[in-house]
Amino acid sequence: MKHVKIFIFLCILTFAVSCGQQGRYIQYKVQKGETISSIARNLNMKNQDLIRLNPDVESGLKADSYIVVPEKKLITYNANKVKEPSVDLIEESSTNTDEIDEKLKRINELREKFEVYEVKKGDTFYNLQKLFNVTRGQLLILNPELVDGLKVGQLLKIREHDVKVVSNGKTFQDYIRPNTALKVALLLPFRADQYNIDTIDVKDVFIKNASLVNITTDFYLGAEIAIDSLRGRGLQIELNVFDTGTRSANEIRSIVASKNLNRNDVVIGPMYSEEAQAVADNVTIPVIFPVYSDNQSGFSSSNIITTVPDKSIFREELVRYIKDNFDRGNIIIVSDEKAASLALSRTLKSTLEHSVAAGNVHLITPVNGYIAKHRFSQILRPNTKNWIIIDSDSNLVIADVINSLISLPKETVAKVFTTDKSSAFDKVDNRKLANVGFTYVSDVFVDEDSVETRAFNSQYYKKNNTLPSFYATKGFDITYDILMRLASGNDLKTTFKEGASSRVETKFDYRNNNGENQGVFIVQYNEDLTLSKLK
């Protein structure tokens, strides 16, 4: 009876996600060259209706400003954008998975060296020149086949990367052993017992524990897409969903005691670290911890797999990147006055002094809570690399650094790094961050134009009538990667030795074979406010 209740509750949550999109408004970032008329046309609105929502824009729009638009109309427009021949080719028209894998492999190989673009219906050399600032002649040099003209679905090399793209070694090759069947237990805190299934109103689902319900539901819907995709490729999957309830209800103990979780091949969840440890202590199969926790470094069971890298990995990756790419000049580490932060910054300084040749490493901390601009100008030098590492999440420290560096003389160039982009950086104007080439370590990288992203967005939209959230994509990436590895027929940790894998937004690199994902990206802000993956 309880499983029936959970099933009904999941159906209601799925319906609520769709209904929740009706009649809402969200912010839309104006792109360069867009006008009131062009946006209204794309959203199938009248100009005056758009102006009525944004009365202050009647005099015109500025690039990178924000306006309010109906969420449903924006979703419809974005969905139409992803419904292109190339996506359909991958999702529907092609039944040959080898062709799909070959195309994705070719795209990934090209992206190692070039900026890549897939030709869309209506593209011309003129709009490509406007879009990428390249001439027809430059395109022909890299793409001789263009002598016959543009064709929908063509992969174009736009330009070579001007930064070094580093590979972390071997890549895991997706393979599903014929006639493979997997049993999967999904343990998530739906908290269905808090609702009366017979009288529930969809709005009530999101009023109580709205944040957790949204995260849980989105993760589940993403995992469901992953399972559908793998079933479509011939993998037999039995999915067993368990509601772990509230954190204090000890529902986990009841599940462990009454359900034979070991009959599954893998457990995905729970979402709380202490619950994951409790499950792992009572099973012999892998337990996948799907979120980040400060406590995850303390897991004591070898069968727990942490899918989100520990923060120490972020620092190690930044040191590795600087060691590989810095050859001369100045490095400035900026810390705050907190004892813990200062200790970490001093350790980072010592590490870089021993790792980087031909460089001077400096440490700057605030004086009376403030960092004066002249303290940077005393160190920075023209015509050489000046790399500044902000090793703090203080709003004041970050503002001081960025504001001091955006007005340097033209011959003195500074590049700003951080080990982890905290929410404090969201308070800084993106144009300022782009001006200093802001570069950070991240466990996700979103490429909206990639074939993988567009295919996933399209598939998710068709099923749920909305575009995926961050946690929906996480649910897909984690579930797809773990089940694909198990589908090879090998033990999960054996597949870790076979190399790293990249999914829609996440990299999975268990290079130490200890069950801890170390897959992170080095991401850079560009002058046009786009993001580039440097590593």
Helix content: 40-55%
Distance N to C terminus: 50 Å
Please give the order of strands in the largest beta sheet. Answer: 11-10-12-13-14-17-18
**How does the overall form come out from the CA principal axes?**
globular
Which class of secondary structure composition applies to the elements? alpha/beta
Return Rg in Å: 25 Å
Number of helices: 20
Name the average pLDDT: 80
- As a percent range, the share of strand residues is 15-25%
The biggest beta sheet reads:
7 strands, mixed
Q: Low-confidence parts, pLDDT < 50 over ≥5 residues?
A: 18-23, 82-95, 162-168, 197-210
What does this structure look like?
The chain has helices spanning 2-19, 36-42, 47-53, 71-82, 85-93, 97-111, 125-132, 136-142, 202-207, 210-232, 251-258, 273-280, 311-325, 339-355, 374-377, 395-405, 430-435, 451-464, 470-487, 492-496; strands spanning 25-29, 66-70, 114-118, 155-160, 181-188, 236-243, 266-268, 287-289, 304-306, 329-334, 359-364, 386-390, 414-418, 439-442, 501-502, 507-508, 521-525, 531-533. The strands form five sheets. The chain has a seven-stranded mixed beta sheet with strand order 11-10-12-13-14-17-18, sandwiched between helices. A five-stranded parallel beta sheet has the order 6-5-7-8-9, sandwiched between helices. It has a two-stranded antiparallel ribbon with strand order 1-2. The longest helix has 23 residues, at 210-232. It is of the alpha/beta class and 535 residues long. Mean pLDDT is 80; it is low at 18-23, 82-95, 162-168 and 197-210.
